[in-house]
Predict the structure.
Amino acid sequence: MNTPRGVLRDGRGLQADPPLPLISPNPIGVRQSPSFEHQHSRAPSLFSAQIATIPRTSQRGSLHMRRFLVLLVVFASFSVSVAQAQSLPSAKPEEVGLSTERLGRIGKVLQAEIQAKKFPGAVAVVARKGRVAYFEAFGARDPQSGAPMTKDTIFRFYSMTKPFVATAAMMLAEEGRIVLTDPVSKYLPAFAKMQVSVPKVDPTGRLTYETVPAAREMTVYDLLRHASGLAYGEITANQPVKDAYAKAGLFHADFPYDQRSLAPAEEIEALSKAPLSHNPGEVWEYSMSVDLLGRVVEAASGTKLSEFLESRLFKPLKMADAAFSLPKDKLGRLAQPFANDPATGTPNKVFDVSSPPKNDAGGVGSVGTTTD
């Protein structure tokens, strides 16, 4: 399924635009992992407007192409935050330089996808110049019970947790409590002497691997730009890394991307003992870098990640439902997927957010509403 996408041009409204490739021109001076480029041809992004949808499949290895439908809208006035949507005044689209007709296409696309059983329901909001021009809910919040989608539905954010953690790290950098060029080992000493799994081809043409010391230590900056040498077991083509992650509980083939059962200290130990898939700073590979960045935030702040985000980000921005778990009185608002993945027929598995996890997973673990 291609990801629908739009771009605002010269205040003339929402216009169709071809999907962007995931891997854009390289701005950070590192090579990109061919294994990830092969498996993920494009991915959505979020700026000041978003569509949140219920996932139809639990296999986050294909998260960006199959699990979520996300609309990217780039605003001429980029300073507007969707997090303020509930408290912002509304406006007719034309009053803020948008097109009622073109915004109406969002609903048509979503309704068509819902009718085709691609996903159960969706919430969309578009704000510009401090006013909400489009805010609609479609389909079902829970396809099993038939409960309708509502504007205050809570979604599992999965990888949209990453921007929160990156923001937390930059807050600490502004305060001088983190220096981006510092080695990660300054905050987490276990990462001082990492090994790298290097692929080689023997004389018979067989692929083998050799473990060698890393050329240099990974830095906080490397974590922020996914160039640390860490990987996702679900994605990496480096077999020794995949095997090490599986053995350590960082990768579960039957429940992808769920490391929340590991306590922070266990996660740190597991990642520090597994080999890197590349030398730090040399290759861009989507990875557990932001999970580890969350551990750096905890070490530098002396505060649990969820507590730091709650006090420094969620509360100040009035993100009332953003969290890493939900109290009982909010569980009824949580979006649920189809029982089975329509594409494969296999049962869907989603994170249980009814109680706090052992690990505030900085790469995948938060929940919240579209307006959050």
Notes: The first helix runs from residue 34 to 39. The CA atoms of residues 82 and 371 lie 5 Å apart.
